[in-house]
Give the backbone structure.
Amino acid sequence: MPLIHEIDYGTPASTSTKPVTLTIDGQEVTVPEGTSIMRAAMEAGIKIPKLCATDTLNSFGSCRVCLVEIEGRNGTPASCTTPVAPGIKVSTGTDRLRRLRRGVMELYLSDHPTDTLTSPVAGNCEFHEVAGQVGVREIRYGPSGTNHLNAIVDGSNPYFQFDPAKCIVCSRCVRACEEVQGTFALTVEGRGFESKIVAGMDEPFLTSECVSCGACVQACPTGSLIEKSIVELGQPEHSVVTTCAYCGVGCNFKAEMQGETVVRMLPWKEGKANHGHSCVKGRFAWGYANHQDRILKPMLREKTTDPWREVSWEEAIGRVASEFKRIQAEHGRDSIGVITSSRCTDEETYLVQKLARQVFGNNNTDTCARVCHSPTGYGLKTTFGTSAGTQNFDSVEYTDVMLLVGANPTDGHPVFASRMKQRLREGAKLIVVDPRRIDMVRMPHVEASHHLALQPGTNVAVLTALAHVIVTEGLVNQTFVRERCDPQAFAEWAAFVSEPRNSPEAVQKVSGVPAETIRAAARLFASARNGAIYYGLGVTEHSQGSTAVMALANLAMVTGNIGRPGVGVNPLRGQNNVQGACDMGSFPHELPGYRHISDPAVRAIYEREWGVTLDPEPGLRIPNMLDAAIDGSFRGIYIQGEDIAQSDPDTQHITAGLQAMEFVVVHDLFLNETANYAHLFLPGSTFLEKDGTFINAERRINLVRKVMRPRAGLADWEVTQEIARAMGQDWNYSHPSQIMAEIARTTPTFAGVTYEKLAQGSLQWPVNDKAPEGTPVMHIGGFVRGKGNFVITEYVPTDEKTGARFPLLLTTGRILSQYNVGAQTRRTDNVVWHPEDLLEIHPHDAEQRGVRDGDWVRLASRSGETTLRAHVTERVAPGVVYTTFHHPATQANVVTGEFSDWATNCPEYKVTAVQVSPSNGPSEWQESYRELTTASRRITAVAAE
Ligand code: SF4
Ligand code: SF4
Ligand code: SF4
Ligand code: FES
């Protein structure tokens, strides 16, 4: 397969609908008004040489190689900065233009390395290509004068290098960092010959504000900025379009390959979620796929205290079947179950729940979405009728006011954060509701209008107070409510929120947010032409997670912000396939498409398809499986792609449950924490080793394509199929597209989905007869459930209380360079940015405890304790501490407690009463985990230089 070549039109497409006709080199061309001459020419197949222009950036007009002549006009304007005009006649290749372009290129080449054969960009360099295009045959000025040829290469970033000698100061990198990424880490310093590109305060890339998104590298036309993998391996020879396996943004990439070796991941311009952008994880952090820790053979042991023994796939699968059958024979049909993962494909997840329902004969299936976004499913289904976000990401371009609640997009959803920042720089307003002063509160050229820095656990109170202001100050969108919502539900809800106990003044006492700030934020949101709500796990992972989701839905309805571009309720999904895992029927009470297991008509569809009778009773959720294990009624489990011992709360309860089971099967890439309690380990496959689909936060179904054979021999879906066959079912899929065909056959929202169609471009479900091309915006003209349902959101304080012993509130989250429990990112050079989890603590709380920045501290709660280093910062308010959970050495979930969402059991990760005290250092068990890697030492060294 050849390299997928994306055409660079030089300047962005115009959004105008007014056509303009002109003539270029005698050819009549019609393009939208506002199009540059360069782009118009390119669309007509006429390639004008260019250096400082690229179609992902606004035109700049600095290099002067793209000159053209326009009949009747003086001079030779730059085609990248000159818009088309009706009737003009443009020439792109006259002798005069050729002469001028050669002169410009000659000057560039006189201060440029000429080692073309040994250059890492050899064979794929825009600069070389332009030199060839304009036909430079001699360099009259020579490199003998002052030049930049001996400039020092900055190799501090683990993934790319900057060689100033090759730089032509076209500023594409600077503009990419500003316009695409929104970080403003680069500048052009100096003037004329002295001008140069600098990162931060003229420092190494690694220590600057650079977040390593790679947009500048992608934009660079000379290879001055270039991936180290290209320097090391050379240019790729073919590419395959696939989807990032990290977060719920769902960026598309071209995996650029040499044989079965990945040389580079390039964000795909046609990707509808990312439009050619990426973050450090998707673009660079794929090295874990080849990490030495990968387990590539099944491993078995009789007791969890025995050493592992490598076995064949046949023996491994045979043992799963015989053990599960034995346990069911001895302890009953319900004594075993499965846990699926949001990291796996839809097809894999579908098969795992099918394994439970068809083969085991029970509904004991649950997913790690239980611990993140299950309240989203419940809350949005109850209010709107569909368990999913309402918009596409592009919708943000039409948003005037964003309400960002409990989400930290610059770290968790970086590519979408860049889109948000673009819109904010254009003038949209932002309200942040978060206990921490996250980056979006204030960063270069972005400042939130209001930051509601609430006490953890008081979301529902604050969101209801926002509604109070809207209702009592007459800001309700009466037309929308009258036409689209249930009148009785609205009347009851409006009376409830209007009660004085829900006023900002009353809520200030519990939330700590000044009443005036709540009032101002409510007025701003209600006054927006288009107001959009974006939220994350800071909303869902609470004892009132589902209530808070419904409070957000209420706010969208009361202000009429549903059913068109620019508005909506948008959950930012943590993992790549949280949406898909939920869609595929992983929960114990729902078949695929969120249809309750008790519905006989729905069961009949699957009973026909699978040839069995289904149990109408919901099965066990993850916490109930563990409770049942401790009680002795649940004895065996198959866990695919999920590390419950590290990612689920109350670790001691989890491990006690696992220890109580007779046969634990862990199917994963690495020996994770849960594998410590496993009897059988089945090696998993990475996203590079299999076909399938992921569904992102926009309900977008993206193809995942195999770029190399599964290193352990079998893709994950094949392993599940082998287990089903060994247990007596005749599964016979030869490709995941056949699994998708079964999903489409049985699930109305997926009825129109096929791999052939997805190969033409991703689709947002529902995809069916009514919406054959998918559904970018939901609830247009009416809610899926009929009338929008306002739900009363009574604030109930969490049972997790602070007191004399545990006076601080711990909240948790993640950081840009790491991903969840870090199983993948810790096995890449990303550790350079986050070698360990830190505890953020306010200077006031730190001083009271005699803790200084960098000190070891003991973090203790009612559930347990751990030790980590303190980072003293005003990002957190007094009384609040914060940490990430990326490193097993910290095991932050040892500390988190037993409380969970009332509706879905989603754990209350975001609120734990804790105490912090000085410590001498990590305990022995923690020390055994601590990986002070070469990379983490390097950042210290670079910072010190
Ligand atoms: S590093 Fe590359 S993109 Fe940046 S100014 Fe230099 S040549 Fe242009
Ligand atoms: S990698 Fe991204 S953040 Fe860093 S300088 Fe380049 S564009 Fe800016
Ligand atoms: S934003 Fe998310 S999906 Fe996109 S590259 Fe980064 S981790 Fe991958
Ligand atoms: S490409 Fe037009 S001035 Fe550089």
